[in-house]
Write a structure and sequence with these properties.
Number of strands: 2
Shape: extended
Helix content: over 70%
Radius of gyration: 26 Å
Oligomer: single chain
Structural class: mainly alpha
Number of helices: 10
Strand order of the largest sheet: 1-2
Length: about 280
């Protein structure tokens, strides 16, 4: 019995792999993380109750992270199905590295590096040895973080609603009206900037300046991500177009050879066989 393997794209023999096989390392990493959380709780508090408290916090964060990742998995699967195998491998490799290590580990450390004006190694030592000071620095940076992240996510949401090609509506009465104005260029950017200006008027002058600058950086980051996505999509479309053109050319050569020689090639691959 043979069965295709969706991950490798080839044909393998034997019984199909169970669902647990693909989640094996996910469970291993989760268990190790919870064990490290319990060990950290015992090391910092020295009591069984303190260890259970930190272990419970780690467990709640793990459940929250896993549950919030399901929607990302659906979006990623819809993107992956249209990619070539090469780009699927790149996406799953570098995308996971950037999303997990970049945004969960490197990005918070960079915030402390910039806010406290210290080096990356000092920020890591501060996070491990002085969690209260690390937390204070992160709390002081709440306003620029909220402005940057909020503007970025606002652009993500507006781009979803102002999409004239979207045929699935969650809130039909709202999305249907917004879709009518999706052809207006820059409407998402205009709404985001108006929102930022309105909220900045409710802050003190110093905080308003920080809020506005951070929001602009969030908007620019989104636009840069869109440009990068467009470049990657165009390169992938060019590769697919090249493959299709090559297939058509080979098929035409086979057809011409059959017509000129009056023979039928028996060993032509099925993809290029011309009836």
């Amino acid at each position: 019995m043979t069965q295709g393997n969706g991950l490798s794209g080839g044909v393998t023999s034997g019984a199909p792999r169970s669902m647990m096989h693909y989640f094996k390392w996910a469970f291993i990493v989760t268990i190790l993380g919870l064990a490290l959380g319990a060990a950290l709780g015992w090391q910092t508090t020295g009591t069984f109750g303190g260890m259970l408290s930190i272990f419970f916090i780690c467990a709640v964060l793990a459940v929250l992270e896993i549950s919030l990742s399901f929607d990302n998995a659906i979006v990623n699967a819809n993107k992956l199905k249209d990619m070539t195998p090469e780009w699927q491998h790149r996406f799953l490799t570098w995308g996971i590295v950037i999303a997990v290590f970049g945004m969960r580990i490197v990005f918070p450390l960079l915030i402390v590096v910039v806010a406290a004006n210290i080096g990356p190694w000092q920020a890591m030592v501060l996070a491990a040895t002085q969690p209260d000071e690390y937390s204070r620095i992160m709390q002081d940076a709440h306003l620029p973080i909220a402005a940057f992240g909020g503007t970025f996510l606002m652009m993500v949401g507006l781009s979803f609603f102002f999409d004239h090609e979207k045929d699935v509506h969650w809130v039909r009465w709202l999305e249907g009206r917004m879709q009518k104005y999706a052809t207006i260029r820059g409407i998402e950017v205009a709404i985001a900037l108006i929102t930022v200006l309105v909220f900045s008027r409710f802050l003190e002058p110093a905080e308003s300046q920080i809020f506005f600058h951070s929001a602009i950086w969030g908007l620019l980051t989104f636009l840069l991500v869109e440009v990068l996505g467009g470049l990657l999509d165009s390169s992938q479309e060019a590769l697919q177009a090249g493959d299709h053109a090559a297939s058509v050319e080979i098929a035409q050569l086979i057809r011409d050879y059959q017509q000129s020689e009056g023979v039928r090639l028996k060993n032509v691959p099925e993809a290029y066989r011309v009836s």
